[in-house]
Design goal:
single chain, 78 residues, mainly alpha, 78% helix
Length: 78
């Protein structure tokens, strides 16, 4: 088997693919860990303050409006 330019190009492309997949795997692992940490911190803060995660990120009014709409049987909802 000789090293032809086409063969070298194939090996180079395959190496680039493997490097890209390894980088992607590490990035996804980091994202997953960061998400788990964020959820745990949100739950701890909720336990300490009594405000849910939606209130912590500024969506409390939206959640409160939805709950009021569904519990008071209003004729219209947003």
């Amino acid at each position: 088997m000789s090293n032809t330019p086409a063969n070298d190009k194939w090996f180079q492309n395959r190496a680039e693919q493997l490097i890209h997949m390894e980088q992607l795997k590490r990035a996804e692992l980091f994202n997953g860990r960061a998400a788990m940490l964020g959820i745990v911190i949100g739950i701890v803060v909720e336990g300490l303050t009594g405000y849910g995660i939606a209130h912590q990120i500024g969506l409390g009014a939206l959640v409160d409006g939805y709950a009021a709409c569904r519990t008071q049987f209003l004729p219209f909802c947003f």
